[in-house]
Amino acid sequence: MRFHQLFTDKTKRLCVLLFLIITVTISASAGDHIVKMKRKSGVYYIPCVINGVKKDFIFDTGAAKTSLSQEFANELLAKRALTRNDFKGTTQTRNANGVVDNNATVLLKQVKVGNRLLKNVEAIIAVSQKAPLLLGLNVIDLLGDWTMRKGNLILHDYYGKTEEEEKPQIISPADITYIDDTTLEPNSDISYDDDSQPTLRVRAYKGDPEAQYQLGMIYLKGVGTDADPKFAVEWFRMAATQGHLAAQLALADCYTYGWGVEIDESQAEYWRNKSIEVEY
User: Fold this and answer.
1) E strands along the chain, which residues?
2) CB 60 within 8 A of CB 134
3) Which domains does the chain show, CATH number per domain?
4) How far is Cα 198 from Cα 192, in angstroms, rounded to an integer?
5) DSSP letter (8 states) at residue 19
6) Residue 154 burial by CB count (10 A; 0-12/13-18/19+): exposed, middle or buried?
7) Element at 72 (helix H, strand E)
8) Cα separation of 34 and 36, whole Å?
């Protein structure tokens, strides 16, 4: 009888202890937020929202800064999620081959990862058009305490800013005051060496039609980089819509000869006529 009573009391104490442990564990994780990640080719991708645009980024603890491809930067520009005033200059990085690249630097108004909303985050735009999108330490360090488990990023209790309802501010081109803080003069001879291209690219992203045209020629002819007629057409189009004569003629040639687009003589004629309007 005593043994049975002792066993029962011990069991009760174990149950109470187990209950307390479970309660503490649950309360400790109540503020956690789980972000499901995707694994591809041995790396983890995490869903992010950049200025309102959703994209999967590589979760890269080896990258100091968050990095965008030129393709994604152009998508943000097209969706008005970036403006030319968001481009702040250039910064140097060393790629996997040991070559130093000069990359455009941009300030992202909002970066959302899970329930974390970060503001005014600096990122670089890689030289390559289709460079991988990297979520670097300058963002990861701001997420607070986190652990990774079974393909999930677990964001622990967080006392900073969480998700807010506000959306990125949409700025009209008419509201932008263009301040040229680069060294390349609009009418100067443009060199296509590695040192000048980043400056030219920054000017193009800031909306300078001459720089957009010159960058289009670089990608059309493959000067100092791989030729990419489709990318060239996009730069020509941006400059042409601003009334740049040479860009309009170049865009017309692209439609005539099928450089980066389907042959479309009506479009070619349209842009040739636009160039005549500019000339006369």
Assistant:
1) 33-36, 38-40, 43-50, 53-59, 66-68, 87-94, 100-113, 116-125, 134-135, 146-149, 152-155
2) yes
3) 33-155 (2.40.70.10), 191-279 (1.25.40.10)
4) 10
5) H
6) middle
7) helix 70-78
8) 6
Contacts of 11 (CB under 8 A, 6+ apart): none
Percent of the chain with pLDDT over 90: 29
How far apart CA 136 and CA 2 sit, in angstroms, is 64
Decide: 81 and 53 in contact? Cβ < 8 Å. Answer: yes
Residue 86: closest CA among 68, 72, 106: 106
Q: 17-63 pLDDT, tens per residue?
A: 665 555 444 444 556 889 999 999 889 999 999 999 999 999 999 88
The CA distances from residue 45 to 40, 129, 280, in Å, are 7, 19, 53
Q: Are 103 and 93 spatial neighbours (Cβ–Cβ below 8 Å)? A: yes
- State the Cα angle at 72 between 96 and 126, rounded to 5°: 25
- How many angstroms from the chain centroid is the CA of residue 235? 18
Claim: this prediction has a pTM higher than 0.70: no
Q: What is the CA radius of gyration of the chain?
A: 26
Could you give the C-alpha distances from 16 to 12, 19, 198, in angstroms and in order? 6, 5, 66
User: Using the 8-state DSSP alphabet, how is residue 187 labeled?
Assistant: T
Please give the DSSP secondary-structure letter assigned to residue 174.
G
pLDDT of 182 > 60? The answer is no
C-alpha–C-alpha distance, residues 66 and 59, integer Å: 10
